């Protein structure tokens, strides 16, 4: 398997993992909203358990975004090398490097948003 193919497979793997973690995170947020809106207030234990699950999921997401960004860096490096040396990129993988840079920017923004969100989570325990 060539370096480009391996880089794309790794990128796809991390993309799929991120999608699963984002679904899990949304599911946790739905549970949190339900828990906070109950007629009978949630116990501190219920809140702590759910907040811990959310933090663990956020940590996994943050790590996955970083790995995803590393894959994008690798793809950029491969594309630049191939372009510089006149090595063709297979049609199924023709992508503008700017797209990779935009994805890196999105990942960086999401990582920062997760960090801010995690800092705000303890406030939920006070509700």
Describe this protein's structure.
- 83% of the residues lie in helices and 0% in strands.
- Helix 1 runs antiparallel to helix 2 and helix 2 runs antiparallel to helix 3.
- The chain is elongated and about 65 Å long.
- The model has no long low-confidence stretch (mean pLDDT 92).
- The relative contact order is 0.14.
- It is an all-alpha fold and 127 residues long.
- The protein contains three helices and no strands.
Instruction: Give the quaternary arrangement of the chains.
Output: single chain
Element string (H = helix, E = strand) = HHH
Q: What portion of residues belong to β-strands?
A: under 5%
Given as residue ranges, the uncertain stretches (5+ residues, pLDDT < 50) are none
Q: What class, by secondary structure content?
A: mainly alpha
Largest sheet, if any?
none
State the distance separating the first and last CA atoms.
54 Å
Calculate the mean pLDDT score and round it. 92
The percentage helix is over 70%
Shape: elongated
Radius of gyration, whole Å: 19 Å
Strands, total number: 0
Helical element count? Answer: 3
